[in-house]
What does this fold into?
Amino acid sequence: MKSRISFALGFLALIAVGAVVLALPCCRADNMRGDWVTSLFTAFSAVCVTGLTVVDVGREFSVAGQVVLMVLVELGCLGLMTCGTFFLVAIGRRISLSSEFSLMNAYGVRQIQGLRGLICWVVGSMFVIEAVFTVALYPHFGSWYEAVFYSIMSFCNAGFGLESDSLATFPRSWPVVVMGVETILGGIGFLVIYNLCTFKFLHRISGARGRLSLHTRVVLRFTFYLLALTFIAFLAIEWNLSLKDMSLSDKAVVGFYQAVTPRTCGFCVIPTEALHPLTRLIYECLMFVGGAPGSAAAGMKVTTLAVIIYTATAMCRGETETVMDGRLIPTEIVREALVILMAIVMFAVVVTGALFVTEAGRGISSDALFFEAVSAVTTTGLAVGDTTASLSTAGRFVIMGAMFIGRLGALTVVLMIGDRESKKHVRFPTEEIVVG
It folds into this structure.
């Protein structure tokens, strides 16, 4: 319980510091002190790696402000616990047991052994991947600064852009594909990347036998399924609509990127408001799913979706146990998956209801408000038109709270609310109840 509260307070402290810095005149393009609500909202969005903004980042913030934004996104992606642990390891200090357990929960690791090495690898690999994709993006931008900015935002799944229309003016070729691939890497999580690297290379160096874990196989499989199905659905719906005037190659590139972004990242090649309502409905479902555990992406996670699907399939077959790839999934994991699904849907409904109250009479459609709520709770960062900028001050605070809940994670929030040590060891009699 204490570790979860410390985790939340750490994020709030980082957000507060970020808001104060972003409000300084040196961080504003006009050299004037910024509005504190706008600065606070931007800090929340950056630390929660969301990408929702109430102002144009490229115009409102100076280079110094944009650098602060990148730092907040990087820290939000890694998490304060990871950064703090890396610093302690670097200076040779010991890590407390509570911190180790917090990191285990953050990355989904079940054993403490090798945790310190994993943390160092996570930090190092993030910078290496961002550096490689910065080099890949440089030919398009012709500016190392812009290449670094978009590389960081893509890998961290943040979705902040220097242009007001996101990626709509980007050529539908190399840069979009590169950013799409980097977004996928950021969305599958550090554990999967680590497992893939050790599977291929570790045994060549140390003689250790590499093996893809069940977690890695499930994440890769369901990520591919979701990308493929979304790609096909997007092209089928938008072929003669938003894609009507594009060439075949452009349609393929746009379809690929638009299949990547709705689960994790707030960038878009085609404005969300220009999409068919059915496409936006599919996007809302994908935002609920999100990325993989141990990544910057929120949502209920692809592994949660996999557990629920396998459990439902087992029930349809009359089986009482959930089995994935020949491995029995513990009942505790199944229960956690169901709680996460219920919690994230409940949070989205509550946030939507709050927006209906705060934005009444402001001319924003209920569909746009629901899309905004889902995007905030899942820290995706997509929005319909100028919905985010049009929110009232109260509505902006609602979205800040939603982004914060999304970054902490549905299960973490539920456990923080209901975590109590039970001192009773009583087994109650069993009785059936009618459901369905």
Observations:
- The chain is about 65% helix and 0% strand.
- Residues 2-416 form one domain.
- Residues 331-358 form the longest helix (28 residues).
- The mean pLDDT is 85.
